[in-house]
Amino acid sequence: MKITLSGLILAIQLVSPTSLIAEEEITRTANDFVKAADNCLLDVRDNQIKYKESRHCNELGRLHLKYLNNGGHEKNTPLELELKVSNAIGVAWSARAVSISGDPSISLW
User: Fold this and answer.
1) How far is residue 100's CA from residue 23's CA, in Å, rounded to a whole number?
2) Measured between alpha carbons, how far is 19 from 60 in angstroms, rounded to an integer?
3) With a threshold of 0.90, does the pTM exceed it?
4) Residue 67: which of 109, 13, 25, 104 has the closest Cα?
């Protein structure tokens, strides 16, 4: 099997530490966003903290922007991360709805 220089360079790029670090960073950011969304809902629904007063809810904008800056919602973003973040966005909206309505049992259906 003959290995060309361009093939070798491509192989190195595919497993480069930079790409691994980027994947770890976007995964960490996605997980931080999911955790903040879950804690935001707990604050609002279970602890009766208003959305605007919850530290976790207030972190969501910054964390989502960090997710975007790390490559989130791009064509090459891992589908698993996209699904987790999309679900967390729904959780965040639920927290906002509970906070506005004051009804912890509010639901869409």
Assistant:
1) 36
2) 25
3) no
4) 25
Residue pair 27/84 in contact (Cβ under 8 Å)? The answer is no
The tokens for 19 are 């790409």
3-state secondary structure the chain: CCCCHHHHHHHHHHCCHHHHHHHHHHHHHHHHHHHHHHHHHHHHHHCCCCHHHCHHHHHHHHHHHHHHHCCCCCCCCCHHHHHHHHHHHHHHHHHHHHHHHCCCCCCCC
Question: Which are the contacts of 104, defined by CB distance < 8 A and separation ≥ 6?
Answer: 44, 45, 46, 98
What are the pLDDT digits (tens) for 28-86? 999 999 999 999 999 999 999 999 999 999 999 999 999 999 999 999 899 999 999 99
